[in-house]
């Protein structure tokens, strides 16, 4: 038995997939913004301790935490950094390089499948950066716990 999908079913699926991937991209930017604010607050708190006379182990763990938070911040900035490559043929950076007639020619076919692919690749890359940034932030929190514990010794 062969299942076929009607043209209207394919259209609905393509529209839903475009909306879903666009939503995922928005989620990465929101998460990155929240994490950037969190990491910034932690870094500001650590900066207020920079002139304090702390034991060497505490300074060592604190410095390592600052490096981890810095790495997380870089990764988070890569998440929110605009991607303006016009190499693909299904996005606004490409269309911005074209004349109106060339844009009309591009719209003769259905660009949704290409757009879904391009946006999906972008979303996966952003989520990978986001995941690494969370790992760095968690590492920083563990290092800060060690720094605080070394104060108690």
Automatic annotation (TrEMBL):
It is found in: Cell membrane. Its main location: membrane. Residues 14-150 form the Pycsar effector protein domain. The chain crosses the membrane at residues 32-49, 61-80, 133-152. GO terms for biological process: defense response to virus. One of its GO terms (molecular function) is nucleotide binding. Pfam families: PycTM. One of its GO terms (cellular component) is plasma membrane. It comes from the Bacteria. Keywords: Antiviral defense, Cell membrane, Membrane, Nucleotide-binding, Transmembrane, Transmembrane helix. The keyword Metal-binding does not apply. This is Integral membrane plasmid transfer protein.
């Amino acid at each position: 038995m062969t299942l076929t999908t009607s043209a209207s079913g394919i259209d609905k699926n393509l529209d839903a997939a475009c909306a879903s991937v666009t939503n995922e991209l928005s989620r990465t930017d929101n998460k990155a913004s929240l994490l950037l604010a969190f990491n910034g607050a932690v870094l500001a708190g650590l900066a207020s301790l920079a002139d304090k006379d702390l034991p060497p182990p505490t300074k060592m763990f604190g410095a390592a935490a600052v490096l981890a938070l810095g790495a997380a911040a870089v990764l988070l900035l890569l998440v929110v950094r605009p991607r303006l490559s016009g190499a693909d043929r299904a996005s606004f950076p490409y269309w911005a390089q074209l004349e109106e007639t060339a844009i009309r020619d591009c719209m003769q076919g259905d660009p949704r499948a290409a757009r879904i692919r391009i946006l999906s690749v972008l979303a996966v890359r952003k989520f990978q950066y986001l995941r690494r940034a969370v790992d760095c932030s968690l590492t920083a929190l563990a290092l800060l716990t060690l720094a605080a514990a070394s104060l108690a010794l």
